[in-house]
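User: Teach me something about this protein's shape.
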Amino acid sequence: MPRLSHLPTYSRRINGPGPAVGTGMEKIVRTDAGWRDHLAPEEYRVLRQAGTEAPWTGEYTDTKTVGVYRCRACGAELFRSAEKFESHCGWPSFYQPSSGDAVTLTEDRTLGMVRSEVRCARCDSHLGHVFEGEGYDIPTDQRWCINSVSLTLEPAES
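Assistant: First, the predicted structure itself:
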C-alpha cells in the first residue's frame, strides 16, 4: 500500500478486524444493534459502514471554532482545531491527529484505488482517509480528510 508505511507512528491495522493493539486506549465494543440504537441513520452509515457524506454538506467543513474534535460514536479526542486547515476539498481537513494513538489506519481498496482509511482507535469507527503529497503548505504534507458526521466539536472555554 503506497505511503501508509511513511506515515508517522499512528497505529496501523492492515486488513484485520478490530482496533489496533497497543494503543493504550480503553476500547468501546457494541453489537451492530447497539450501534444502530446509539447512532442516527446517517451517522451509522458513515461511522459503521464506512460511508462518506456528500462534499460541502458537513457541519464542520468551514468551521473556524477553536476546540477539540471528538469521535461522534464514542467521544474519544481525535483532532484539534489548531491542526485544521482549508483544503477546499468539501470535508474538514486536518494535518495531523491530536495524538499518535487516537486513530488507526487500514488499507482501503474500494473505488478502484488504494487509500489509507482512518478509524477511531477507541471504537473502530470509520472517520475518513488520509492523503499525502498533495502540495498543501502544511507542516506534515498530510491531509486527514474526515467526515463531519464522524465528529463532534467541543468548543474551547472562553
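Now, about its shape. Residues 4-15+26-155 form a domain with the Metal Binding Protein, Guanine Nucleotide Exchange Factor; Chain A fold (CATH 2.170.150.20). The first strand starts at residue 11 and ends at 12. If you'd like, I can walk through any region in more detail.
User: That's plenty for now, thanks!
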